[in-house]
Amino acid sequence: MNEKRILLAVDGSQNSLRAADYVGEVVRGGPGFHIELVAVLVPPDRDIFPDLAQFQAERDTRARDAAQALDAARNILLGKGVAAADIGIRTMSCLDMDVAGTILAVRGECGCGSVAVGRRGLSKAEEFLLGSISSRVARHAKDFTVWVVG
């Protein structure tokens, strides 16, 4: 685990962009930091689309949205003075694992000492029923820190 490696999970939401802004403020000017941006693609359910063309169109839309989210977060970090060489970008498919599990797997793979996520805008009742990605990531934190930005 490297304390100067930060995994920043983004989905294009305002809270994930606030997380990018927060991370940029924290590492601004600090030597040796590396930020790994990740967007997790959740594939659409094939069964809800009447034909393959509509399914592929939705999959393409989700991939384009993920690329835009990564680009927006990267631009925020660059605007805070983080060097382009200190920013990695990944898009991961969420196939067998849930989004939180995918984020945790990427964190383990890249050895990040911190994970930054935006808080999903759920009410207490919704969070209880549905859970949240940020809550699940925080629950599984054993040897790393979690920053939940809202």
Proportion in helices: 40-55%
CATH architecture: 3-Layer(aba) Sandwich
Class, according to the CATH hierarchy?
Answer: Alpha Beta
Beta-strand residue fraction: 15-25%
| Count of distinct structural domains | 1
CATH superfamily: HUPs
Radius of gyration: 16 Å
How many β strands by DSSP? 5
What structural class results from the helix and strand content?
A: alpha/beta
Uncertain spans, ≥5 residues at pLDDT below 50? Answer: 121-130
End-to-end CA span? 26 Å
Encode the helix/strand succession as letters: EHEHEHEHHE
The chain-level mean pLDDT equals 87
- Report the total helices: 5
| Strands side by side in the biggest sheet | 3-2-1-4-5
Q: Indicate the overall shape.
A: globular
Stated plainly, the CATH topology is called Rossmann fold
What's the main sheet like? 5 strands, parallel
